[in-house]
């Protein structure tokens, strides 16, 4: 029993150390970017030794990719909560769109996931990672809209892939803009208008 407890404490300490390193990495990569951040700074901010950092990560790129995973997982969690909520599918889809645009305005997501990741990870690996995080949610939301009779029964995989590409482009436009809030608002306006054009069912206020 004592062995199991000791192992558990070591595991807890190790996980705490890794979490502190990633918190520092996210903050520094957001503030300074990949090129402007050093492993020494990450260790110092985390109050752990550089040896402890190398116990968890093989190098700077590994730290970055773990920080990227933290940021993407957080956004995915928020979108999942919205898209799998209790509202009707149409309302969930619009709320999910707003959450996605809000994520694109978040400094950590914008800097790490949209600006830095395509360069640090390479475009194809970055796109594959975005696919893992986002594509399934888009596909699920579209299927819910079809099942609810809100939109026509279209090929889900192909349509989801087109939507995914459009949203990736929108995210990049927001991140690269000198006025990201304005661009985000315009993108939301355009996407909502397009969704209303393909909607089959009238909103309750228009059906009476």
Key structural traits:
208 residues; mainly alpha; 0% strand
Furnish the topology, listing elements before pairings:
Blueprint: H1 2-32, H2 39-46, H3 50-56, H4 60-83, H5 89-105, H6 107-121, H7 123-147, H8 156-176, H9 180-198, H10 204-207
Helix pairs in contact: 1-2, 1-4, 1-6, 4-5, 4-6, 4-7, 5-7, 5-9, 6-7, 6-8, 7-8, 8-9
Discrete helix count = 10
Instruction: Count all strands and give the number.
Output: 0
**What's the mean pLDDT score?**
90
Give the fraction of residues assigned to helices: over 70%
What features would you describe in this structure?
The chain is mainly alpha-helical. The chain has helices spanning 2-32, 39-46, 50-56, 60-83, 89-105, 107-121, 123-147, 156-176, 180-198, 204-207. The mean pLDDT is 90. Helix 5 (89-105) packs antiparallel against helix 7, helix 5 (89-105) runs antiparallel to helix 9 and helix 8 (156-176) packs antiparallel against helix 9.
In short:
By secondary structure, the protein is mainly alpha-helical.
